[in-house]
Amino acid sequence: MSKPAVGPLLFFAIAFALSLYFTFAAVQGDFGLFRRAEILAEADEMRSHLADVRAEVAQMENLTHRLSDDYLDLDLLDEQARSVLGMVRADEIVIR
Question: 94 in a domain, yes or no?
Fold first, then answer.
């Protein structure tokens, strides 16, 4: 009786196991496809947040400029003073 050939069977088993491991790592690993999709979604969210923050900064810069020494918006100054001090004129009606 001849012995069965274990060498080729073992080679294919190891090759199959390695291919499964590398396929799993390519899809699920730290640098895999799913992680890449998560990173891209997070990047889009961060870009959206950055646009919101830039708009808020532009608004604050506008208000700061309007209250600066170079350019004084008296209506905005009056509004800010009333808001901070909580005061109204005698001829005004306050609606809340």
Answer: no
